[in-house]
């Protein structure tokens, strides 16, 4: 069984479904409201565990009902929580999501996710040292992402950096990461002044640009490749990127090459969007194999 560490956010998603997205100053009537576990880190941990990896989550929640629900959800999905700490000085992170016409818009309030500091990550060093791959995103402090990139480089542990939500990154952090998986918007912020072709050529087999329902694009050292996604009817795309990242990490850690790992990741993401909620449609390994046959 492959071993994965996810260092990142755990949040409660507060999801409103509405036919109309309000403009500034406007009030509209929505159709439904639900609270479901989310946060990019937690989503990636749950997706990787469902896909069959042994997963340690390294993160923080608040000492409140949302925090308890998130911990129970990790346990229900087989994610190891030895390094998930309940902090008392911050409330659990929340994501405020409007789902409208098949698309989402999200405001994240980081809360306890800001307690995922470099000092906090050091407490989980034993798990990190045993990992086949480490996953990290950007809903935790920037200095932690920089620190983990250095740590993984020093320990020679592959690091998959999902640079979401978008922000600028130090050049060293980009260089230290083994794989970087921005969407097109995040890529243009990270590599300002370069065309997409130039970025991909500069980072062969490392930079993987996701293009939503189009697929994922990378350079294999000889030429640019698009690995197309699977056409499906999407109910909710929240968490599709997280499922993609987890699927890619699981497949790589099992020894698959980049192309087949990307196909595996695309298939997992295509299943995930067919149900409501960031984690609602994340497939189990059995469901992936069923889909494959
Ligand atoms: O990637 C999807 C996630 O982003 C949601 O679950 C929400 O928590 C936001 O952080």
UniProtKB/TrEMBL annotation:
Signal peptide annotation: none
Record entry for activity regulation: Activated by a monovalent cation that binds near, but not in, the active site. The most likely occupant of the site in vivo is potassium. Ion binding induces a conformational change that may alter substrate affinity.
Subcellular localization: Cytoplasm
Cofactor: Mg(2+)
Chain sites annotated for binding substrate: 11-13, 39-43, 139, 242
Domain of life of the native organism: Bacteria
Enzyme Commission (EC) number: 2.7.1.15
UniProt cross-references to Gene3D superfamilies, sorted A to Z: 3.40.1190.20
Catalytic activities: D-ribose + ATP = D-ribose 5-phosphate + ADP + H(+)
Residue ranges of domain Carbohydrate kinase PfkB in the record: 1-284
InterPro entries membership: Carboh/pur_kinase_PfkB_CS, PfkB_dom, Ribo/fructo_kinase, Ribokinase, Ribokinase-like
Keyword RNA-binding listed: no
CDD domains in the cross-refs: ribokinase (cd01174)
Pathway: Carbohydrate metabolism; D-ribose degradation; D-ribose 5-phosphate from beta-D-ribopyranose: step 2/2
Subunit record text: Homodimer.
Cofactor remark: Requires a divalent cation, most likely magnesium in vivo, as an electrophilic catalyst to aid phosphoryl group transfer. It is the chelate of the metal and the nucleotide that is the actual substrate.
Its job: Catalyzes the phosphorylation of ribose at O-5 in a reaction requiring ATP and magnesium. The resulting D-ribose-5-phosphate can then be used either for sythesis of nucleotides, histidine, and tryptophan, or as a component of the pentose phosphate pathway.
Keyword Amino-acid biosynthesis on entry: no
Family indicated by similarity: Belongs to the carbohydrate kinase pfkB family. Belongs to the carbohydrate kinase PfkB family. Ribokinase subfamily.
Record: active site: 242
Record-linked HAMAP family: Ribokinase
Protein name: Ribokinase
């Amino acid at each position: 069984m492959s071993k994965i560490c996810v260092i990142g956010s755990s949040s409660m998603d507060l999801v409103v479904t509405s036919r109309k997205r309000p403009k500034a100053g406007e009030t509209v009537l929505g159709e439904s409201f639900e609270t479901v576990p989310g946060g990019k880190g937690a989503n990636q941990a749950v997706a990787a565990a469902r896909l069959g990896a042994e997963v340690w989550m390294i993160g923080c929640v608040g000492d409140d009902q949302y925090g308890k629900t998130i911990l129970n959800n990790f346990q229900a999905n087989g994610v190891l929580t030895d390094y998930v700490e309940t902090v008392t000085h911050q409330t659990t992170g929340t994501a405020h999501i409007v789902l409208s016409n098949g698309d989402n818009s999200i405001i994240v309030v980081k809360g306890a996710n800001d307690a995922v500091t470099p000092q906090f990550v050091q407490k989980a060093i034993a798990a990190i040292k045993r990992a086949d791959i480490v996953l990290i995103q950007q809903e935790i402090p920037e200095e932690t992402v920089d620190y983990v990139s250095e740590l993984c480089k020093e320990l020679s542990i592959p690091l998959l950096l999902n640079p979401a939500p978008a922000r600028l990154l130090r050049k060293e952090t980009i260089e230290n990461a083994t794989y970087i998986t921005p969407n097109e918007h995040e890529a243009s912020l990270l590599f300002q002044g370069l065309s997409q072709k130039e970025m991909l050529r500069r980072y062969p087999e490392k930079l993987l640009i996701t293009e939503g329902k189009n697929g994922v694009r990378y350079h294999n050292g000889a030429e640019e490749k698009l690995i197309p996604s699977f056409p499906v009817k999407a109910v909710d795309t929240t968490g599709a990127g997280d499922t993609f990242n987890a699927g890619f990490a699981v497949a790589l850690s099992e020894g698959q090459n980049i192309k087949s790992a990307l196909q595996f990741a695309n298939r997992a993401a295509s299943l995930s969007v067919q149900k409501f909620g960031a984690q609602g449609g994340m497939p189990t390994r059995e469901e992936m194999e069923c889909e494959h046959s």
